[in-house]
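Team,

Forwarding the record for the chain on the shared tracking sheet. I've put the sequence and predicted structure together so nobody has to dig through attachments.
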Amino acid sequence: MNRIKEVLDEKGIKQIWLSEQLGKSYNMVNSYVQNRRQPSIECLFEISFFKYCKSN
């Protein structure tokens, strides 16, 4: 189980914005959020960066 959905909600980050930042499709990011697929370690590292960044 991952906490990607919780982190996005906490930070007010939209999945479409995250998908653009990661260079991944919206469907791929949605699969991560819904826990249907597990992101690679590299992708998790990139996502974790946004947890500590301030979003506008």
